[in-house]
């Protein structure tokens, strides 16, 4: 979201070491049944705790391979079964019953019980800073049968199965619920790890997983500190799949017969967040001026190198219910200057825009936006911070920040998590009674038509008065060996679903973008 908030406080566990290149990679011939994957993630933020915050792709990917969540994103639906095979609600939309896979086993061969699942959800709920990931009070989480868990929300919630995607990992009762202390429940189990920061992990197929086991016998997952080292590793054949390398690397390898570029539309947004409830831009006219001063086409071209599309200031760009009837905002400097004047914005001072080098192109985004705002008369100084400093001092506090989110297929997810006035991670301090009313109706109305009308209304409010400049959506860009088939095409954390990947001949896949 990200379903995991990458900008939250880093844990700094286990005294890891920063990597400048792939640890332990060699030029040996790969085993035909082993998928070698590289992903970005600072070793300094490594964690063995599946209920913590993940900084970068590596840790989230590792957790998703080892532990099964309740539900996941799907190619044809916003939410599809995983540990839960089906679900239904009562008429009030407050009580949801999830039927669990009856044959699910942990990696030690023991059966997954409903109480294992229920206590895993309770653990996530009571973990400091993670409660937003599960909108159910701890007391409302109960095992109600051998393969059944019932969740009771405080308010009606038509979207609960979707809101439980990805982070609701199942761990075993009676363990410490960590990578190094609990048997997993996902498609792969850990065979070996190179260090306590799990910088290079070999996982083998869990034959007791799901309706059918993973296609490959093993996955070797390697942590990388930077995009260049990750790209070099896939180009040199040290790994088979490099995740989120970005468009520049993709352009450099396009046309090579031994490599393929995989595009995952709607993967990431890196919006400008403007504080709404107080500060220099509390007047909605000032926020509108900022939105009109931004050149979206230039940002897509210069930050994303064309691997993305222009967006329109509403989060959840890949949602089928995204309101595409809203007029597309285009740059209008004259109107922006007029709105700054009407709002009484002090154009004589310099404002700070806080950013961090976390998502692809995030710092560059801040610098380009600062230059564009200057053309409308608003002087902005870009201040780059370490991610943990940003999380502690600037995130949901400063007047101007950049933020980043993946898995952009749900308007309601963002409405509930970061725009709801009651949310603990309301990044812009947005407090709008009309929005809250529309959100409540969209989540709780018994009629699908009424929910749809409310969803349209809350998007209009966000478009008119919200605090985000959602200038574009970035494609996820991966590079893979031509022997890799059926790699994930979903945006956001859908990319973690590696269990259907298979390996074949080096000559059976092309290099054209997909």
UniProtKB/TrEMBL annotation:
GO terms for biological process: peptide transport. The keyword Iron does not apply. Residues 78-409 form the Solute-binding protein family domain. Coiled coil: none annotated. One of its GO terms (molecular function) is peptide transmembrane transporter activity. Keywords: Signal. GO terms for cellular component: ATP-binding cassette (ABC) transporter complex; periplasmic space. SUPFAM superfamilies: Periplasmic binding protein-like II. Residues 1-20 form the signal peptide. This is Extracellular solute-binding protein family 5. InterPro entries: Peptide/Ni-bd, SBP_5, SBP_5_dom.
